Amino acid sequence: MKKIFIYFSLTNNGDKVADFFKEKDYDIRKVISKCKYPKSKFLLMMIGGYKSTFNKKDKLLDFDTDITNYDKIVIGSPIWNDRLSAPINKVISLLDFKDKDLSFVLYSASGNAGKAKEKIRNLYGIDAIVLKEPKKNIEELTKIKDM
Ligand SMILES: Cc1cc2nc3c(=O)[nH]c(=O)nc-3n(C[C@H](O)[C@H](O)[C@H](O)COP(=O)(O)O)c2cc1C
């Protein structure tokens, strides 16, 4: 069974999750946004928070939409204002997950990602897994050990 982890990350929590999946024989596809997010935490919160609140979709750099060879797809997104990030909003608008074994892994500071989970449940009928800052809290990765 071919597996892939498709994810976005700004501050490396997602990269930690990607390293974990790589060891479990997943292919890795990191999503790059064309939006240059600011270094300033305040501005980042304003811009990222606005985008996710209004369900905006970022333009992506060279994103490969071909997932035909994969049986299992895991999508990874940071939580922005309780919601999916704008780059991942774009990813899910581009990909057709029909007949795929689909999962979502979300990474947050401390929130439970209620609105993101609700959206995923409504769209795909599945429960997303939420990891709290996996870069710092390595033990959070045990939540995805059986994936
Ligand atoms: C714009 C923005 C909004 C955020 N909103 C939330 C939030 O609502 N709840 C939460 O727990 N964490 C929130 N965070 C923190 C991130 O979800 C968390 O640090 C995550 O692990 C980042 O993943 P990354 O390092 O892969 O980018 C926010 C971060 C940003 C940049």
Characterize the structure shown.
- The chain is of the alpha/beta class.
- The protein has a single domain (3-144), classed as Flavodoxin domain (Rossmann fold, 3-Layer(aba) Sandwich), CATH 3.40.50.
- The protein has 4 helices and 6 strands.
- The protein has helices at residues 13-23, 41-53, 86-94, 114-124; strands at 3-7, 27-30, 72-80, 83-84, 101-108, 129-132.
- Strands 1, 2, 3, 4, 5 and 6 form a 6-stranded mixed sheet that branches.
- Helix 4 links the parallel strand 5 and strand 6 (129-132).
- The radius of gyration is 14 Å and the shape is globular.
- The chain binds flavin mononucleotide.
- Flavin mononucleotide (FMN) binds next to helix 1, helix 2, strand 3 and strand 5.
- Residues 9-14, 44-45, 48-49, 78-82, 107-111, 133 line the site of flavin mononucleotide.
Shape: globular
CATH-defined fold name:
Rossmann fold
* CATH superfamily membership: Flavodoxin domain
User: Which ions, cofactors or small ligands are bound in this entry?
Assistant: flavin mononucleotide
**How would you sum up the major sheet?**
6 strands, mixed
Q: From the 3D coordinates, which CATH architecture would you assign?
A: 3-Layer(aba) Sandwich
Mean pLDDT: 97
Helix content: 25-40%
Give the beta-strand count.
6
Structural class: alpha/beta
- Taken together, the total number of domains comes to 1
Strand fraction equals: 15-25%
Instruction: Sketch the topology as an H/E string, one letter per element.
Output: EHEHEEHEHE
CATH class: Alpha Beta
Separate helix tally: 4
